[in-house]
Amino acid sequence: MNYRVNPKNNDKLSALGFGCMRFARDEKEAEKQIIYAIEQGVNYFDTAYLYPGSEAALGRVLKKGYRYRVKIATKMPPHTIKKYEDFDRIFNTELERLQTDHIDYYLIHMLPDITTWNRLLKIGVDKWIKDKKQKGQIINIGFSYHGGRDEFITLVDAYDWEFCLLQYNYLDENNQAGVSGIQYAAAKGLPVMVMEPLRGGKLVTNLPKEVYDIWDKAYVKRSPAEWAFRWLWNQPEVTVVLSGMNSMEMIKENIRVASDTEVGAFTDADFELFKKVRQILSEKIKIPCTGCNYCMPCPKGVDIPTCFSCYNDREIEGRFMAVAKYVMQTSIKNQTHNASLCVKCGKCESHCPQHIKIREELTQVTKSMEGIYYKPLRFFIKRFMKLEG
Ligand code: SF4
Ligand code: SF4
Hints:
Structural class: alpha/beta
Bound molecules: iron/sulfur cluster
Largest sheet: 8 strands, parallel, barrel
Radius of gyration: 21 Å
Number of strands: 10
Number of helices: 15
């Protein structure tokens, strides 16, 4: 495993971090995977109060003698904080779930803007952080972020942060905080942890044929995921890259790549490959949804990320395949969850880190994917699969 040094405190952090949002379903299997990753040198585990069951599952494994070998990162959801006591209520629950007495890297989860930070300040977040740090219960304080560059810089400057967590990948080089935001944070001495390195899998599966052709004809054979990871680890500003890993095959492959990358290893030829791939993908992906699920659940049952994913696939895989997938995927549960169920209440939009105009886009999805064939096909599928709704 390659390690990168946290410039703030000299922690040696594994270049690959274990994203704990979705562990393997079987807890025994998840445990095996976590222990394997630790034995291979992964020492940064990122979870959150809001990831269902994740903190508790991680805590149960680390309790078996692994806690001292890893750094735990977990997160406080700011929208749950209404009064000072809420900080401790959430934090103590997290300590209990994780079966630990301190959090190494604690984040304000998805801090959207300075207004939210100022609201937390009014409730006393700075006093609370100081108290937790004095007691040794929080070692490093940071925030995760999904918005644009300017707001990110405002937030970086608003407090004496010790790290940050950002969405970053080769397709988002100039989206969100982007490369300039990352360089800004790094110049201020902040370690930068990266999430969504594969953009919710969009940089790996169902890519346009032209993109696979570029990777296939490259001077060295590497999978699309390996290229995407190498692009990140080539950059000195990137400290830890999180990968949501839930299969042993994926863990082994990511560890192999993370153990074989160096800052500044890319040549002009490598950058040229990325330029071509980026150009093709930007033309094809119509809605920049990463599938993060923050907009869910919709009160009307619309499966927003699935609707967007199928719509984007229309551009990449062709209309027939994409519509077939849309009909299947919006029909194979007891409750249907297609785009036209949207009543435009707007509840989802404020949660979207990509700032997608969800209501407008769902209207487009409805027009494009729900022709006169949709209802009869759905009826047939439900009858065939003996589903209600
Ligand atoms: S705007 Fe539509 S998709 Fe969003 S929460 Fe409301 S009904 Fe659901
Ligand atoms: S629409 Fe936005 S919040 Fe919902 S899954 Fe996509 S990126 Fe995430």
